[in-house]
Task: structure prediction
Amino acid sequence: MIVVKNVSKYYGDYAALTDINLEFSNGIYGLLAPNGAGKTTLIKMMVTLIAPSQGEILCDGKNISDMGEAYRERLGYLPQQFGFYKNYSPKQYLSYLAALKGIGKKEAARIITELLDKVALSEVAGKKMKKFSGGMIQRVGIAQALLNDPQILILDEPTAGLDPKERARFRHLLTELARNRLVIISTHIVSDIESIANEIIMVKNRRILYKDTVNSICHSLDGHVYEASIPYEQLESFRSHVVVLSEKLDKGIMNIRFVHPGDAESSWQPVKPHLEDVFLYEYRDEIEAKG
Ligand SMILES: Nc1ncnc2c1ncn2[C@@H]1O[C@H](COP(=O)(O)OP(=O)(O)OP(=O)(O)O)[C@@H](O)[C@H]1O
Result:
């Protein structure tokens, strides 16, 4: 449905993304990378807020920048920060947006009732949003992105600021929404998308590192992830010859999960790689730098 073809984006001399090639059809795609990797840049190009410096983005074979409104009619977008009026209720806010989109009053009322039910906000439909939790606000955001029943739904860091329970609810909602849509979710939190995404896209050094299923991406570290327990005193020297993924100190013993591409020692326990392992391994320099 959507093809990103040889796309690069420069801000002045700075290359944010270079030679990006991607194809999307229905399902959930998780765009996973640390902050600053270019997720928002890619998303902004895909929603026509900014134009690629090179290359093109096609929807059913047509360049989206030439399609204009015809493309945007098929698109629902939740930006990283979306503007809403906190003195409005969800119903007032959505009615206002529906009017801007040219949806008739009666039709809008029907759609809004349905949407508020879908995002589990029917009970607070008439309440001012100023007392809403982050999760409730994000669900209003999803509802506004769905007003035109879009075939393509693009959500930029939709789970930022949500607590674990709200994240779980969000995942259920997205799975439901993706049954007959293309859904793209950007995040730097592995657990947001690991269980729901049909494919994960990872961006590194301005390029696509992976676009594959979780299983296939995890295969890249097959046979290289281990767990071991070592005395605390050996930690420094251990760290110098493996890539540590996680450490837990328990009664003077360090339990370590790590990556080591070479020969293993007999005391190391090989374990099945998870997506979090790949994420921590691939972005170890960025993560260390942010410390
Ligand atoms: N308008 C701009 N002008 C100059 N540089 C920019 C601009 N927008 C983004 N950048 C730079 O491009 C790179 C990618 O930014 P982008 O916002 O796409 O990353 P991201 O992965 O979405 O991170 P975040 O989650 O923090 O938004 C960053 O180094 C950023 O500083």
In short: DSSP finds twelve helices and 14 strands in the chain. The chain has three domains: 1-74+151-218, 85-149, 219-290. The domain at 1-74+151-218 is CATH 3.40.50.300 (Rossmann fold).
